[in-house]
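Fold it.
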Amino acid sequence: MNFRPNPTHEQAVLELARARPLLRARDLAQQELPTIVLSRLVAAGKLERVARGVYGLPGQAISEHRSLAEVALRVPHGVACLLSALRVHGIGTQAPFEVWLAIEHRAPIPRLDQPKIRPVRMSGSAFADGIEHLSVDGVRVPVFNAAKTVADCFKYRNKIGLDVAMEALRDGWAQRKFTMDEIWHFATVDRVANVMRPYLESVTT
């Protein structure tokens, strides 16, 4: 049986795309709209495929953190961390081309062509604590807060470099992105309190 285009369906999908800059097939299913409309609208140039299973209006303004939103849609249990989280918080000078994503210890590593991700295994309170949410293009993106991110930089200093961790601490402290109590709490959660102690003392003296 051939599917006949329904202008009402197409209009409804375009209205949904205006309300949600990043649109998935499941968003249509929730509204009881046929997902085949997505392919027809892409073929007509009224929608574009921005990532696998993710669609948007052509020519719409792209948020600086669009890649984080795309990953959050496809890996809902991941948390933006380390260099990606530093970028979100405006700390330091890092501009990662991958999305650094914390993944719970036993969870499978997601395989994405685009955006590329850099998975980082975390577990327990080191994975669960310090998460806040950022709204990017209508998508709720989980990201570690500034204090947790800086503590993570020291925990994973072998991955990103001690110089990056030190820059993050100095810049975050100078911008008052966190208090000393907050950074000490997450240093304890990450079990890097002894590592961080001399650096914390250096920024407060």
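The longest helix spans residues 7-19.
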